[in-house]
Structure formats: structure tokens, C-alpha cells
Please model this.
Amino acid sequence: MKAIIIYCSKTGNTEKVATAIQSGLGGNADVIKLNLNNDGLLREFCPDFKFDLADYDLIFFGGWTMMMKLHPFLTAYIQRCENIDGKKVVGFATGGAIFSRKHTISDFTVLVEKRGAEVLDFHYVTTLLGPLLTKKKLNNARRFASDIAARFYLDPVSTVL
Ligand SMILES: Cc1cc2nc3c(=O)[nH]c(=O)nc-3n(C[C@H](O)[C@H](O)[C@H](O)COP(=O)(O)O)c2cc1C
Model:
């Protein structure tokens, strides 16, 4: 079972959650950061960047909430990536406040299902621009990924940071 984590992050919160998720997967996942400019182009050379997800059985997509919506970089990637149909997908997102959670999950589910993939689960983390992203929340994200891994017979690891 091959997994990949694809995420975008501006100020580092979603990146921390992505790292916790990778740790929860026991390091058994490729990772791509969508470090894009406003035209949707890569800011710097990224040798691991890929649009074709044919090699992966389990895909984690992570982004942050901007103006009550899933971030447009992640949205654009999900709309355009190749060979996502029929895949199992897990979402995660950060947002300043809990009130945007519903919009973000709903955006994500519509996007993924439009591509013919199945949303297995979603993990939302509140950050309030940083200070609310506690060690406990990162540990919860790690445990979330570990539970998903167990469902997929990857090697779940200890959930204590
Ligand atoms: C321009 C902008 C718009 C935002 N809009 C929302 C929003 O609508 N709802 C919300 O909960 N958080 C909002 N946030 C907060 C971010 O989602 C939050 O700080 C997130 O953790 C940032 O992720 P990052 O550190 O990975 O870039 C906004 C932040 C910025 C900079």
C-alpha cells in the first residue's frame, strides 16, 4: 500500500500537521508541498513534484482555510491531478476558527467526489494563526493518521510524541 501526502501551507501550521501525519504513517509516505505562486506555478524547483497519482493507493490532501474555503492551490491540484479516480482519499486542513470547518470539509468532499475518488476521512485542526496549534493537536493528527494506516495495513506506530 503506497501513500502520499500533498499539502499547501503559507505560515507553517498545515506543514506541521502534514509532518505529524507523515509520522503517524510511520514515515511510509511520499510528501509534496504545493509551494506555488499566485499563477499556480511552482516557486522553486521541486524534483519530487508530480501530478500523476497512479502509483498511490492512499492519498492525503492537506490545506488551509482561506476566506471560508479550502485554499485555491489545493483545490486546483485536486481538480487537475491525474489518476485519482477510484482512489481512497483522506483530507486534513487547518483554519483559524472552528466555524469554517463545515465549509472546508464540504468543499473538499465535492471536489474529490467529482474526480471519482472516495473520501475516507477528514481531520480539521484549529490554529488561530498559530497559537492554538498545540502539541496535543499535533499528537491527535498523528494518531488520526496512525488509525488510517491501521485500516490500510501499513505499519502503525506509537502515538506518543
Ligand atoms: C487571507 C487569510 C484568510 C483566512 N481565512 C480564514 C477563514 O475563512 N476561516 C478560518 O478558519 N481561518 C482563516 N484563516 C486562517 C488560516 O486558515 C490559518 O491561520 C491556517 O492555519 C494557516 O495555515 P498555514 O500556516 O499552513 O498557512 C485565514 C488566513 C489568511 C491569511
